[in-house]
TrEMBL record:
Belongs to the RLP family. It comes from Vitis vinifera (Grape). Keywords: Cell membrane, Glycoprotein, Leucine-rich repeat, Membrane, Repeat, Signal, Transmembrane, Transmembrane helix. It is a single-pass membrane protein. Pfam families: LRR_1, LRR_8. The chain crosses the membrane at residues 354-378. This is Protein brassinosteroid insensitive 1. It comes from the Eukaryota. One of its GO terms (cellular component) is plasma membrane. Gene3D superfamilies: Ribonuclease Inhibitor. The keyword Aminoacyl-tRNA synthetase does not apply. It is found in: Cell membrane; Endomembrane system.
Length: 408
């Protein structure tokens, strides 16, 4: 067993404690004991120097996360969701500098979200939801990568073809060639991770994890304002801050989340207006600011915002717009005619300019008639066909009328 690299015992009915002797498997790279009934405290696994993937989720582990829990510089995945762990996140977690996936959802963890998590700059998926974290969201989260960036490489050598990130690269003899590619990590086919995105809990397996990115801080007791630094996460796909006590306005910097697909800010105490710049988020599929104190006009129903329903904005009594069937009052009303100014503002949303419509319709109708008359005047063949058609219509109507009235 000394050279065992993979141990998968998940989805069984094992009970009792996880034996501390398991840490003697020092060559282990993949350990999965998830979805059992294991209990007791977590043992120290610091002697597993080569561990890359650790799955302990779905058990009944209780107590603090040990300070000397892990010490592997190769660890990519740490999944200890849905247990009964309490206390704070130990500083030792921040030493796992290659960590890509950190899943702590569904425990009893409390205290402030520690700033030392920001040392995990390679993180792509972080789920701290359904705990009892309090205090503000760390501003330094804006400096975490949350997604793969292409890295620069150089090559020098013989003439050959290479394939990088789906593109052919030609390297000529005697020349340095610069190219970019997205680094990938050795996610096993058995490496399965569950994450909530687009209001749906899905499982992701294997290489697809190289392309997933998200931050879930929902269902905690977080307070304060949303840091504008989160707008620096230009590669993130999912951001869920719902079911907290966050206040203040939605940062305009969120318009820089160019790859975002799901943005959930519901069930907070947010105020102010929805930044109109968010209309430029071309990949946004799920958006919710429901159950807040948002005010002002909802963004125009353009681009992705044309796909969001009323449920995305519900329970914001001061929001207005055609989707909510609630008219907006202009903030720049003139003293002498406030109702007129308001009506002019609403005309942009609801009304069609009747004068322009009638003028366009009449002009188009006249142009069609003139064009038709011109064709009949120029072309005698079509003129004769038209007269024959009219004559046939008249005779048909005449015979129909005679037949109808003769039956009475």
């Amino acid at each position: 067993m000394t050279y065992l690299t993979t141990l998968v015992l998940g989805n069984n009915s094992f009970k009792g404690k996880l034996p501390p002797e398991i840490s003697q498997l020092q060559s282990l790279e993949f350990l999965d004991v998830s979805q059992n009934a294991l209990s007791g405290s977590l043992p120290s696994l610091k002697s597993m120097k080569y561990l890359e993937h650790l799955h302990l989720q779905g058990n009944m582990f209780i107590g603090l996360i040990p300070r000397d829990f892990l010490n592997s510089s190769y660890l990519l995945t740490l999944d200890i969701r849905d247990n009964r762990l309490f206390g704070s996140i130990p500083n030792s977690i921040s030493a796992l500098l290659k960590l890509k996936i950190l899943l702590l959802r569904g425990n009893l963890l409390s205290g402030f979200i520690p700033n030392h998590l920001c040392h995990l700059t390679e993180i792509s998926l972080m789920d701290l939801s359904n705990n009892s974290f309090s205090g503000p969201i760390p501003r330094c989260f804006g400096h975490i990568q949350f997604g793969e960036t292409k890295k620069e490489y150089y090559e020098f050598g013989q003439f050959h073809y290479s394939l990088y990130a789906g593109n052919f690269l030609t390297v000529y003899p005697g020349y340095w060639v610069k190219y970019w590619r997205y680094p990938s990590f050795a996610y096993e086919e058995k490496d399965e991770v569950e994450f909530v995105t687009k209001n749906r809990r899905d499982s992701y397996v294997g290489d697809i994890l190289n392309f997933m990115s998200g931050l879930d801080l929902s269902c905690n007791n977080l307070t304060g304002e949303i840091p504008h630094e989160l707008g620096m996460l230009s590669l993130i796909h999912t951001l869920n801050l719902s079911h907290n006590q966050l206040k203040g306005s939605i940062p305009k910097s969120f318009s820089n989340l160019s790859q975002i697909e799901s943005l959930d800010l519901s069930y907070n105490k947010l105020s102010g207006e929805i930044p109109l710049e968010l209309i430029g988020l071309n990949f946004l599929e799920v958006f919710s600011v429901a159950h807040n104190n948002i005010s002002g006009r909802v963004p125009d129903m353009k681009a992705q915002f044309g796909t969001f329903g009323e449920s995305s904005y519900e329970d914001n009594p001061f929001l207005c717009g055609p989707m909510l069937k609630r008219k907006c009052n202009t903030s720049t009303e003139s003293p002498d005619s406030p109702s007129q100014s308001s009506q002019e503002s609403e005309a942009k949303w609801y009304d069609i300019n009747l004068v322009v419509f009638l003028a366009t319709f009449v002009t188009s109708y006249i142009m069609i008639l003139l064009g038709f008359a011109t064709i009949l005047y120029i072309n005698p063949y079509w003129r004769q066909r038209w007269f024959n058609f009219i004559e046939e219509c008249i005779y048909s109507c005449y015979h129909f009328a005679c037949h109808t009235f003769s039956s009475y």
